[in-house]
Amino acid sequence: MAETPVQIESKITRILIVGTGLIGASTGLALKAAGFKGHISGWDATRVERLTALEMGAVDEVASSREEALSVARHAHVIVLAIPVMGILDWLLELAPVLRSGQLVTDVGSTKLQIAELGQGLFGGGGARFLPGHPMAGKESGGAALAEAGLFRGAMWLFTPFAEEMDELAVEWRSWVAKFGARTLDLDAARHDELCAWVSHLPQMLSTALAALLEDRFGDAPEIAAIGGRALRETTRLGASPYSMWRDVAMSNTDPIAETLFALEQRLAHVRENLKTPALRDEFALANRFRARR
Q1: Do 106 and 151 have their domain in common?
Q2: Can you tell me the distance from the alpha carbon of 25 to that of 44, in angstroms, rounded to the nearest whole number?
Q3: Tell me, what's the pLDDT at 251?
Q4: b/e per residue, 60-92, with b = 16+ CB within 10 A?
Q5: Which of 13, 88, 89, 263 is deepest in the core (most CB within 10 A)?
Q6: Model confidence pLDDT, tens digit, residues 56-82
Q7: Closest Cα partner for 41 from 6, 5, 74?
Q8: Strands 129-131 and 104-107
């Protein structure tokens, strides 16, 4: 006779999401879609964002102030910091003195080195634990109104843990991320920032610079809309991203991003200097090889 599988009791029944914009609200929706039966509280500095998240069911209740959210955090099993990087650093400093053993803080910040280093100093002892994270998912625009439960499906959710062994809450949080349909990968925090500078931050800066250049050069010239087809739309799509979404990324990952931009400047100069030589063919061959692998 087959044995009945032992049901492991969930340790996570109360979650606080700080920042109920696109990623925070999508996290709440993903949790519920994956079967989470606990209580989800939310807070956002923007009243419209927190009320939108509440109305759409991403959270069960919202705190009306930062102070109230901090009070809720004292009783949450998991606190998810879904705000820009500088805000995450501020919240880590506020949370550390009031949290206790048996609580987990995690985040979704786009850069990780500053966050992980501060978190290790604040949560590296025997109290609450910290698991830095970064889902590689999003949209050109933010806001709870654009949130969806399937945002993370098929996406890579990166973690940069500084502890060799994960406690029960961290293990369970990872299991929820897997239930979202996300894949996971652990990286060293500095390596994370280096790689993301190349594969995420550089494409954003390139698209922004190109769109800004075209705006300066042509403005609202109707010919651009008439002849700028799919290639233009694809290469300038990220140019629609607002500065507010990328300011903290640029501030917290300045050197790696600057390195990628300098390398691109050199590469573009190489292309410019070889428009009439076989070197241009070689550049296309390298680009074709890169795309063929993906």
Answers
A1: yes
A2: 10
A3: 97
A4: eebbeeeeebbebbeebbbbbbbbbbebbbebb
A5: 88
A6: 999 999 999 999 999 999 999 999 999
A7: 74
A8: parallel
DSSP H or E stretch at residue 156: strand 156-159
pLDDT of residue 8: 52
Note whether residue 277 is domain-resident: yes
Q: Copy the structure tokens of residue 123.
A: 């949560």
pLDDT, residue 248, reads 97
C-beta of residue 119 within 8 angstroms of C-beta of residue 126: no
* Number of independent structural domains in the chain: 2
Alpha-carbon span 111 to 108, nearest angstrom:
9
Whether 169 and 99 have beta carbons less than 8 Å apart is answered as: no
d(CA 176, CA 237): 31
Q: What is the pLDDT of residue 164?
A: 74
Average pLDDT, the chain: 94
Percentages helix, strand, coil for the chain (3-state, rounded to 5) are 55, 10, 35
- Give every CB contact of residue 283 below 8 A, 6+ residues apart in sequence: 270, 271, 274
Residues 29 and 160 in one domain: yes
- Whether 205 maps to a domain, the answer reads yes
CATH number at residue 270: 1.10.3660.10
Spans in the chain with pLDDT lower than 50: 1-7
Domain assignment present for residue 2? The answer is no
pLDDT at 211: 96
Q: Are 52 and 25 in contact (CB under 8 A)?
A: yes
Please say whether the beta carbons of 142 and 181 come within 8 A.
no
Dihedral pair phi/psi, residue 12, rounded to 5°: -100, 110
- Domain limits for position 206: 192-292
pLDDT tens across 254-267, in order?
999 999 999 999 99
| Single pTM value for the model | 0.91
